[in-house]
Amino acid sequence: MFIALTTQKAFAFDVMNEHDDIWDIRLEPFSTFKNRSTQIFFPFTGLNPAKRLKISNWILELCNWEGNIYLGNTKH
């Protein structure tokens, strides 16, 4: 799932609006960016490996690596 998510074009290329603002998933929800934009486009100016790395690191930081999904309710 991680690979499928990080290979989306929004992570590989910049998402821009008519003001040349670039959406940063780490800073604002896409709905907020979309609401302040009239036109959204992908300029496809080439892959941005630094952007993909930043987003990948951000996604990994969101994970609860110390949690245990199997604990649940232990009362009987």
Give the SSE layout.
Elements: H1 2-6, H2 9-12, E1 16-17, H3 30-35, E2 40-41, H4 49-62
Antiparallel strand pairs: 1-2
Would you give an account of this structure?
With 76 residues, this protein is mainly alpha-helical. The chain is built from 4 helices and 2 strands, in the order ααβαβα. It is elongated and about 50 Å long.
Helix vs. strand class: mainly alpha
Low-confidence stretches: none
Rg is: 17 Å
| Major sheet summary line | 2 strands, antiparallel
State the separation between the terminal residues, measured CA to CA: 34 Å
Keywords:
single chain; 76 residues; mainly alpha; two-stranded antiparallel ribbon; 38% helix; 5% strand; elongated
